[in-house]
Design the sequence.
């Protein structure tokens, strides 16, 4: 659970009134999440109770945030089910609460499907491809801030905390990814705004129906294949061992390809990008684990999980 900054009822009430969302009725710190402070906030407007999420950004700056917030608006307007940031009377979607940048978005219905079946993976693949296509005409640019330059910066910081065998794997994989990123296939990969953290806990379902994606605060312009790889590494594996699950993976990629078929360069680099997706979260989990921040409700994720996923991706390369 993560609430890094305590927000009083009065402070939240002030913001809801300024956004003309009505009278705040309920404010609750949210369990889950490790990056930002999140509250569920319900407000009554003309006798109707509406449900929102108030987020205070703990790491991202006011300069970086418009990319994410306007991306969500752009996708929502294109019919992709994502939270829509609420504007003030001037149309600004970036606010300030307790001296921190903040946003209010509508709360998505449903709940996360933490034990997805192929049918859920197919719904994810279909909407992921639609989201990629809908992002093509988004006009703001911001790189994936957890991309290769950040890996190169962060690996030396976490290496001293690792056993020799782990350090060897981490160094070797980083070298492999630097090599991959300098090749011509990589340069040919289609790119655009990607979510980059579309784990099971960042999507909502009602039964088998996908009701939306949220938590866009790791989004950035990167290869679409990286986004697919991040999803496959979380949705389509055997969680205890980190091993690839073929039925789920095929359901995801078939549904994705029914909307947007992969290019030749994407097919060639599938195994390398699956490794990249695993490496990215191994590094960030190591970083969060060994260099933790203060938070009143914070549960760090287990880094060894992505070490296992990475080893499986290295030992058993997979492409559709
Ligand atoms: N728009 C939303 N609709 C519904 N629930 C949400 C929404 N945004 C966040 N949540 C809830 O808040 C939790 C934490 O949010 P998340 O964005 O994952 O946090 P963090 O940015 O800290 O990783 C989610 O697991 C989910 O239950
Ligand atoms: N999905 C990442 C961590 C990012 O946290 P989130 O709650 O914002 O998804 C992981 O599992 O390591």
Sequence:
């Amino acid at each position: 659970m993560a609430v890094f900054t305590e927000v009083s009822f009065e402070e939240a009430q002030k913001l809801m009134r300024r956004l003309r969302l009505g009278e705040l009725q309920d404010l609750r710190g949210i369990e889950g999440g490790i990056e930002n402070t999140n509250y569920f906030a319900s407000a009554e407007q003309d006798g109707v109770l509406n449900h929102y999420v108030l987020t205070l950004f703990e790491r991202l700056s006011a300069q970086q945030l418009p990319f994410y917030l306007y991306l969500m608006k752009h996708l929502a307007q294109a019919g992709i089910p994502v939270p829509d940031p609420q504007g003030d009377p001037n149309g600004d979607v970036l606010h300030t609460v307790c001296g921190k940048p903040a946003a209010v978005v509508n709360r998505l219905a449903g709940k996360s499907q933490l034990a997805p079946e192929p049918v859920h993976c197919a719904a994810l693949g279909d909407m992921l491809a639609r989201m990629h296509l809908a992002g093509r005409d988004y006009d703001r640019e911001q790189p994936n801030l957890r991309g290769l330059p950040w890996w190169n910066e962060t690996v030396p910081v976490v290496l001293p905390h690792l056993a020799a065998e782990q350090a060897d794997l981490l160094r070797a994989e980083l070298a492999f990814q630097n090599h991959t990123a300098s090749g011509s296939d990589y340069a040919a990969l289609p790119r655009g705004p990607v979510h980059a953290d579309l784990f099971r806990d960042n999507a909502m379902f009602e039964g088998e129906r996908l009701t939306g994606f949220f938590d866009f605060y790791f989004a950035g312009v990167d290869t679409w294949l990286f986004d697919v790889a991040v999803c496959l590494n979380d949705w389509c594996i055997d969680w205890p061992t980190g091993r690839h699950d073929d039925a789920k993976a095929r359901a995801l990629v078939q549904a994705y390809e029914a909307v947007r078929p992969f290019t030749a360069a994407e097919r060639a680099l599938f195994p390398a990008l699956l490794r990249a997706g695993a490496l990215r979260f191994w590094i960030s989990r190591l970083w969060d684990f060994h260099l933790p921040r203060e938070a009143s409700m914070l549960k760090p994720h287990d880094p060894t999980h992505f070490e296992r996923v990475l080893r499986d991706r290295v030992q058993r390369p997979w492409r559709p």
